[in-house]
Protein 1
Amino acid sequence: MTSSMPSQHEAPPPAEADPAPPLRRSRGSNVVGGVCGGLGRRFDLDPVIFRVVIGVLSVAGGLGLVFYGFAWLLIPLAGEDESEGRRLLMGRVSGASLAALLMALIGCGIFLSTLHSGTVLGFALILSLAVYGSAVWSQRRRVGGETEGRSDTAAGLTVAEAPPETKAPPIFESPSWWKDPIVKDGSTGKIAVGYMWGPHGILDEDGRVNGEVPKPGSQWGPGPSEPGRPAPSVRRSPLSIGGLVFLLALIAGGLGTGLTWDTHPLGTSLQAGLAAALAVFGLGLVVSSFLGRTGFGTVFLTVVTAGLLALATALPDRISTEWVRETWRPASVAAVQPDYELGSGVGTLDLTRLPLPAGTTVTTHVGVGAGQLKVIVPKSAVVKLHAEVGLGDLQLPGAPPGDIDIAPGRDVTRTLTPPAGTAPAGTLDLSLEVGLGQVEVTRAAS
């Protein structure tokens, strides 16, 4: 007769693989914020790999600082549920949250300054994809190995261990408020009290215990004047280093801008100074989390500096640090250059004396980084005009004098014909471009 009962030696089904550990910042394997240690534990890789990659990405475009700063803010520490970003939003500011925020701001500033370099961005993207693929492969390999190991182990187990014997909970014999009856009818009486930390006995309505006023040093510890009472401790506020950090940031910003003022465009020079100041602010916030303290003013100046750095990256490269005045007066068609460029200042293209016979077309381009561009065209010339102003004003013939209208992104294409009663001469094809400032086109009186 065949038994339908399962055999004791039958192997149980293989156990399911444990999920990967949750992503948490490491407490023991941490150099700055424990992000790389947590990534190594999550993906079963050496944290040094992530540290090297983040360091390379930080230097090449700032993406490493952006990633590490936001990861520090969003990933909770091991054993905790709240992240630094949540604490920061709830008003609980700490040195770690400020350091993470500053790191992200510095990374964003460096990243904005390298947007024009496609090679750097391509290298950062390829390296990030390679590390991500390696991490996913390592995690799947670990999960597959653990599943196979558990299957082999489960096949060798024959008898499951019995669960531990249940025990009755301990009996708490001390009286307490939730075990004794509570009088709710408002009648005068005596209530038995038995707090673990307070007086024991019968409590009257006037606060007496067993008819006596409890002594301060009997049940509640030593009295205020007794020798057994410890002396109150006085906490000393850490030394403020906000003023020193601000002074060092000013010096670093001045040096960074001054050393590049004569050899680089205005935007690049400002970026160097602001980046140096931002680095000093960041270092000061990091130091304040271990030694000394900084106030709200330092945090505010850090955010302002990061915003100014982002604006400096948007300045056109043609804006120079030297303000000049330049006037071009070509006397013949052959003398008209195809391009006229000026970094910063006032540029004037005077075509009043340019002989322009009928049927002749002259083409030129004039660009000014920041300042004013004035173009004076002959009275009888037909002007095909294309003008672009990044931020500023555009004045054309026929506009009311003094009508200044500053707006971003001006782009005008227009054909200007000679005044009535004037025989048309040749054609001027003008391309005018100003990054920040004004374009003014006027027609000569004669």
Note: Residues 118-156 form the longest helix (39 residues).
Protein 2
Amino acid sequence: MASLSRKFILGAGACAVGLYVAFLVVDRVHAVSTLRAETNAGAIPDVSVVSPHRTSPKVSLTLPGNIDAWYQAPIYPQVSGYVKMWYKDYGAHVKQGDVLAEINAPALDAEYAQAKASLASVMAKYNLASVTANRWRAMGKSQSVSGQSVSVANANEQSANAEVQAAQRNVDHFEALERFKQLVAPFDGIVTARSVNVGDYVHNGGGGLNATGSASELFTVADTDKLRLFVSVPEVFSYVLQDGMTAQVTVPQYAGRTFTAKYLTTSKGYDPNTRTAIAEFVLDNPGNLLWPGTFASVALTAKNTDANLYEIPSGSLVFEEKGMQVAVVDATSHVHYVNVQVGRMADSSTEILSGLKPTDRIINNPPADLLEGDVVHVVTPARGYNESGFASDTDSSDNDGDE
């Protein structure tokens, strides 16, 4: 009886061991199978696809701009001397002819006095020569003197008169410089800069000298009742600059507020370094709300001249030696590279002139190691990930309505 019990226990233990071993084998086989399946699935890249869209009938772009005064004049001195007094500070509203500062120029005063004295001297000489010439002409009529003597007297009179004219011009010159001892506003506006103080030495044609020897202006006066807006427009979008167009302008200091600028003119030439053309707009500035030098964000909208083309996200383009390509997914989820001809390119989208069909499924941002004929797994991007503005392949309203 004891022998039977022992055999039963041993048999039960062997069965338990066998079941445990079988469990381990099955679990290992399952793990290997799962790993193989996950590895095979991981070898197929996940991609998101988009379809070409018809270009919008209007083209819109936002560019940086710079606001400048309608008129802006740096004021330099025309005489050398010391600043006696300045009268207009930063932000002062001035009228044309208002005195901004006065310059004390004793050397100029002395030269002016000398010029007037020289004029008086040559004037006295001229008067003497004129009297003498009149006497010689009277005697010449009676044949009392020779004709040569009369001619010499006339020449002396003319020479003295020329000296008077030269001296008078010199006096006029210094009189003009004397008026420049007062710096005046050239037009109605606002003082936007003042770089002068009482006692500063200034010289003819420039302000105070800095360490490099160059001169700076003493004042800057700007007319800000109306402003100029300058925008650098890329070459490929320069066609939007048309007479009558307007731009919506926003500035950092007035968030949520929009100003309207009217197109005025363009440079009609491109900068070879930036491939942009300068466009000038006019901006009304009631109450001088905007200041010169303000950075502006300028939104331009115009009619699209190529509204029948397709556009795709710029991130879908593949730059190859043979030209531009896009990666297209066929019905069997295989990748094929298609040559395309591109038109205007922007940061977010690019126009396609040829090479695509509206039903093509284009990979957005294709992986760099993706090869022709590879199998891919098309997935729908998480909400907020697809920021291209193009519908994914899973959307029901891709482009059917565009045909």
Note: The chain has three helices and 23 strands.
Protein 3
Amino acid sequence: MQQILSVPSQLGALLKAARKEAGISQVRLAERLGISQSRMSHMELNPGSLSLEQLLAIFGVLGLEMVVGSKRPAPTGSKAPSPEW
């Protein structure tokens, strides 16, 4: 799986899709992270509540990694999206 995240709201869907692709339920993922299933659900629905440490822990369990790179320049005349924060 390779996904580009541009805005925070995309993270929840990515986490859910990666979890399902790995065949792991919210309950099992929560157990492996040492948290409750309701907290795991909250993290997927409200990814802005995640700390970097929590995000990397989830990525570790799901076999994901984070790669950071420069954005491609926007085509001339287009307006870059505003951050959602």
Note: The CA atoms of residues 7 and 84 lie 7 Å apart.
